[in-house]
Structure prediction request, 589 residues.
Amino acid sequence: MERLRWTLHDSWVEAERHLRVIPRNIELLIFATIQPIMFLALFAYVFGGSISIPGFADYDQFLMPGIFSQSLVFGSAFTSIGLAEDLSKGLVDRLRSLPMSRSAVIIGRTVSDLVRNLFTFVVMLVVAFVLGFRFRGSLLDAATATALLVLFSYALSWVQAVIGLAVSSVEAANSAGFIWMFPLTFVSSAFVDPSTMPGALEAVADANPFTVVTNAARALYNGLPVGNDAWWSLVWSVGLIAVFSTLATRRFSNSTSA
Amino acid sequence: MVAEYDRHTHWVTDFPAVEMTGVVKRFGETLALDGVDLSVPRGAVYGLLGPNGAGKTTSVRVLTTLIRPDSGTAKIDGIDVVADPDAVRRRIGLTGQYAAVDERLTARENLIYVGRLFHLGGAESKRRAGELLDRFDLADAADRVVKGFSGGMRRRLDIAMSLIANPSVLFLDEPTTGLDPRSRLQMWDVISDLAADGTTVLLTTQYLEEADRLAERIVVIDHGHVIAEGTPDELKSRTGGALLSVSIARAENRERAVSVLTPLCTGRVEHGDDDRSLVAPIVAGDRVVPGVIRALDAQGIDVLDVAVRRPSLDDVFLALTGHIATEEEAV
Prediction:
């Protein structure tokens, strides 16, 4: 109990360290926010006219939940970059020599990245509304959809944490954190219906957890039957967090004993 | 010696502040530590001296719980670093080779941040931060973001952060590496002040001059072994010799002076830089100087100056290891 209390305390101290500096690097926040908005506008206007999806009168209603989900996933890359930075600056050695919780450094990092991603998400949602996107289901459905997306993004932050701790430099973290997100988000149901893809790709897209999460969010935002997708996306997120938080904490503690 | 009971529920003072016994650490094929023994009493400043790859940083990393030894024991205040790392972590401060500061935060924020991670509480962390900023001459820069700090300022902040929880032992791993000469002198003053305050310090360095200047005892380490230990003076006398140089008033007395000096010295008396000076090897610490002056005086040779140059630690290192200390080695 005592241990849990200190883990929460230390995690908050760590999260606060990162949150405190967000306003000091306002450019980073602005560009991190512009990028998803740019995707939103580009896809809606460039592809919007030529793509039609069965069951959706309006491509925007299909596409935008996909972009929401992609942007949140991209946002998780901050975690690998941030941890690699602490590692390269020697700060991690100090932290590991402190009488603090071993997992707090990564929990604090992922939580602060989550807050930043939430901010970006809210701005993106507002822009989507301006562009004509509407919740077609209940407000509760929309809230559930958002929660599922954010939880998945948080789960991927833990994957990114393992990457950030494994690579040797900030530059490497920058590419290693981003590169796999393109196939992850494009070979999926985010932009098109996977049944239009070549057979093998379609199988990959269908099995992709990102497809599951995107489908769940899309159904909920549009007031369509969500089936088991919501549960499966919950299972994926919780599973990823369980596995990768163990890996990341072990990696962080390295050969030191907790 | 009186044992005192402190808040961390361990009896202290009867134990050395730092103790390593037969510590072995292997990285793959490399034997980084090959049975290191070390004992630092409370309040002492010890220097761990050796070239790159000798095992200095690895020793510090074992003592600060960053890596586990393969065998042997390492203790801080009698507490085993492997058995109870958290108790050890509460008692140590570590300043590594790279200034471990968050450069996006101000100096004060960095200090408070670390204080809170030591579980000092917000108010106490703030109070300590204020004290340390004054003490380390950072009060003017306290509320500036660290990104704009010079190397010397960062290093001072780094040490201040290590001291926030009043550690029992402070580890300084190459505290002046990468600093310009002026910052290095400043850092030496900081470390001397710490020593004067009674903080136990174990510092590592490749600079012989630095160990000589700061440490009361020096432990020389090479290839993962402790190869010598002693005060700077003891180590210097290990080379066995010193250099006598004599200046006389009149050049025509020089050959007579050579014959007077020869029986007092351990080797040939050589001519020095000019025609009135002589140099010769002597036994270090043998109080040869008064004899030299008396003998020359008895022969009516006027002496301007007599000096004994002690061997530098560079000479010592060469004598101990057979290679010079600054040599780069594969780690």
